[in-house]
Amino acid sequence: xxxxxxxxxxxxxxxxxxxxxxxxxxxxxxxxxxxxxxxxxxxxxxxxxxxxxxxxxxxxxxxxxxxxxxxxxxxxxxxxxxxxxxxxxxxxxxxxxxxxxxxxxxxxxxxxxxxxxxxxxxxxxxxxxxxxxxxxxxxxxxxxxxxxxxxxxxxxxxxxxxxxxxxxxxxxxxxxxxxxxxxxxxxxxxxxxxxxxxxxxxxxxxxxxxxxxxxxxxxxxxxxxxxxxxxxxxxxxxxxxxxxxxxxxxxxxxxxxxxxxxxxxxxxxxxxxxxxxxxxxxxxxxxxxxxxxxxxxxxxxxxxxxxxxxxxxxxxxxxxx
Length: 321
Known about the structure:
Elements: H1 20-29, H2 36-56, H3 66-83, E1 87-93, H4 95-98, E2 107-113, H5 119-133, E3 143-149, H6 150-154, E4 163-166, E5 173-176, H7 182-191, E6 193-196, H8 209-229, H9 237-256, H10 262-272, H11 278-286, H12 291-294, H13 301-318
Helix pairs in contact: 1-2, 2-3, 3-5, 8-9, 8-13, 9-10, 9-11, 9-13, 10-11
């Protein structure tokens, strides 16, 4: 025993035999005094126990849809068991965070981890997502999200790193920068729905309106030009609807300086933009149900041509900001 009353390594009871309160007391009472390996082991055990307790007590009602809530419990508890002490938090973003979701919305999520996923963790998560996808639930086929190391999520930077990403309608993780945007960070920080973990405000640095507007403007012009350069890539019924609603939403977000829902964007566009676009906005909103079928249906040529004209119109409006 040293002069501070803290046992040295030779006297220290094996840490696995301590109860959790003794472990916490030892870590709190001995900053800088314990052997780094012992201190690290104590913290690791405590974090593992916290994760296990969280999994055992996981009961969430983040949405008004009980079936979806059950899917989310299966998803998050499985992720927590795989990641263990590397798990930081899980959050809903997208329409379930900003509002105006309905039974046809996809389910956007973000998982925050302490570090990059290992190959073993990726393999286990691939298996988990395959199991979730095969659940008898519509929602299980419409999850979409990314795995963010906490250091990457914190900084509001433009797309620079690919993350492990699950696309809507898929059961396999791929590498993509899809969610690695300032807009997603803003939604997580300001509107994110906690499934497990700390408040998201603690995980993302503040984001200015100017930063958001620069990214939104760039996305309108870049994605718009990509669509116009090769319209055949998007010439199905799903994308015809998706493009109109997203370009209306993006211009609305640019106008007011923060993200909103597709419904808000559609209503704003109908009341603010040239009235000649109102019919195409209405028809695309009404055409949202059953996206998994519509993506296999060829878009009506006349309706799709108007969609391309709408994209050009939104791009011209964007340049005024």
